[in-house]
Amino acid sequence: MFLFQKIEETMMRYTDARHAVGEFILQEQDKLYQYTVTEIAEKTFTSKATVVRFAKAMGYDGWKEFMKDYIAEVNYQKKYKNTVDGIDTIAENIKKLQMESIRETADLLDKEVLKKAADYLAGAENIVIFSSSPNTYLGELFKRKLLTIGKRAAVAKSGEAGIEAATLGPQDLALIISYSGNSVTQNPVNRIGLLKKNHVPIIGITSGGDNYMRKNLDCIITMSSRERLYSKIANYATEESLNYILNVLFSCCFASQYKQNLEFKIKNSRLLEQERVTMMKEMQDR
Prior knowledge:
This protein is an alpha/beta fold and about 290 residues long. It has 13 helices and 5 strands. It has a 5-stranded parallel β-sheet, sandwiched between helices. α10 (about 190-195) links the parallel β3 (about 175) and β4. The longest helix is centred in the last third of the chain and has 28 residues, at about 260-285. The protein is elongated and about 70 Å long. The termini are far apart. The mean pLDDT is about 85.
C-alpha cells in the first residue's frame, strides 16, 4: 500500500485531531514541503505533538522521515498523472490512463514470480479465486479462460469464501486479489490464515508498497497503484492493471504446457461449434 492510501486509512481510523492533519496533508500535497511542523499545527488547529503522532501512526519515527517518503510519492504521482476531468478530454485521458496503467504494471512484473505463479496454476487440481466486487467480474473472465484449457476453476461466492477455502489442500491453488491487501478481517484477505494452515499454494495480487499480503505470501504480483482507496471516482487503472495481470498469468500457464493446452482448446472449440450448428439447424427446422 502506498503512502497516500495509508494517509486515507489513518483518516478513516481516527476521528480526533489526526484526521484534521491527514486532511490538510492531502489538500496541500504539492506545497506540503513548504510548511514547518509548527505551521501545520497552526493551520489544522492542533499541536506539534499531534502532527508528529500522525507520522508515527503510519510507522515513521518522526515528521522528517515521513516527509522524505511523502515527497517521493508526490513526484511518483506527477509522473503517472491520471486526472480524468472535462468533457473534451475524457476520451484522451482514459486512453492515456489505460496505456499508462498497463505500462506501469508491466514494469513492476517480476519474471521469477511469474514463473512461480504459472507453475502453481499448471500444477493445481483445483483453482479458486478469492476477491471482492468489482474484481470478481474479472475473476470470472479468468476462470473461463482456465476452463478452456481444462483447468478446474471457480470464483468464491460472497458468503461462501470460508467454505471454499476449507476445501482446498496442497494439491490446489488459491488466487487472492485485494487492492489494499490490508483488510485482515474482511474477505478475501481474511482467508489467508486458513489457506496457509492447510498448506494451500497462494498467488496474491495487490497494490504496491507495504501491506499484510506482502508480509504473509511468497508469491505476490503488483498491480497499478495510482488510485486512491476512498477518493477515486472509478477503478479505471485498477481494472486495466488487473485484467493485464490475469491475461499474462493465463498466457504463461498456457505456454507451460503449450501443445497439450492447444489440443484441448481446439478439440473443445470444435465440439462447441458442432453444438451451435446443430442448434441452429433445429431452430430452422421448427
